[in-house]
């Protein structure tokens, strides 16, 4: 079973070196909510349009994996996984030249050294990617079965649940599977993702084609 060792974040926004403490990202005091009940565009580093999101609101990130493959310095990683959603691009690389059978203690030490030695250059690459794709960039590294995330977004999602759905979450909490309803909901989402990856992939491809057609519009 793969061990995931989560290193504390350097910054709540996903860019190392800038602090994102309590209250970070809030708009000026007294600022009126924007469309849809959210804050105006001046709030933090949120990308896209206030009050809702469509694929056409953000730059196309289909080439993000290729861009990072070409942009990352030679010698950092043997393999790179790039995951993209509407808020974040997560880049996790397998450290180059390290035996995958390395024990967990040494693996964590090597990842920590890589993190410290590459921080400034990763920040520069993240700035370029954020300007290109208008998404926060998060970093991680892997050695064998040890994976560490240096920076990672935790995005709140508002929802309304009826009683039968709340009972499911409360059962998971009562059984000790989750600490709270929000943890239980995240657990359910992960479970669906693990068991429906092929279907979700097909759905994402179909949505991408629809968004491209919507952005293109009819030819007159």
Provide the descriptors you would attach to this structure in a database record:
220 residues; five-stranded mixed β-sheet; 5 helices
Write the layout of secondary structure elements.
Layout: E1 3-4, H1 64-71, E2 77-84, E3 88-95, H2 104-133, E4 136-143, E5 146-149, H3 163-174, H4 181-195, H5 197-216
Helix pairs in contact: 3-4
Describe it for me?
- The chain is α/β, with parallel strands linked by helices and 220 residues long.
- The chain folds into 2 domains: 3-21 and 54-149, no CATH class; 163-216.
- Helices cover 39% and strands 14% of the residues.
- It contains 5 helices and 5 strands.
- The protein has helices at 64-71, 104-133, 163-174, 181-195, 197-216, and strands at 3-4, 77-84, 88-95, 136-143, 146-149.
- A 5-stranded mixed β-sheet has the order 1-5-4-3-2.
- A hairpin with a 3-residue loop joins strand 2 (77-84) and strand 3 (88-95).
- Helix 3 crosses helix 4.
């Amino acid at each position: 079973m793969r061990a995931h060792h989560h290193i504390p974040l350097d910054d709540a926004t996903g860019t190392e070196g800038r602090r994102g403490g309590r209250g970070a990202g809030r708009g000026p005091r007294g600022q009126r909510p924007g469309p849809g009940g959210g804050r105006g565009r001046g709030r933090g580093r949120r990308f896209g349009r206030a009050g809702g999101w469509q694929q056409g609101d953000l730059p196309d990130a289909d080439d993000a994996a290729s861009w990072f493959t070409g942009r990352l310095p030679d010698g950092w990683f043997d393999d790179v996984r790039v995951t993209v959603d509407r808020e974040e691009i997560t880049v996790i690389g397998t450290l180059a030249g390290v035996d995958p059978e390395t024990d967990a203690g040494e693996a964590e030490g090597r990842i920590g050294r890589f993190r410290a030695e590459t921080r400034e250059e990763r920040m520069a690459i993240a700035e370029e990617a954020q300007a290109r794709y208008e998404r926060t960039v998060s970093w991680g590294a892997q050695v064998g079965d040890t994976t560490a995330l240096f920076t990672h977004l935790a995005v709140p999602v508002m929802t309304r649940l009826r009683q039968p759905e709340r009972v499911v979450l409360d059962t998971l909490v009562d059984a000790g599977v989750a600490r709270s309803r929000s943890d239980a909901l995240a657990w359910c989402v992960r479970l669906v993702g693990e068991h429906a990856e092929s279907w979700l992939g097909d759905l994402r491809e179909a949505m991408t084609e629809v968004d491209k057609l919507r952005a293109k519009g009819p030819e007159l």
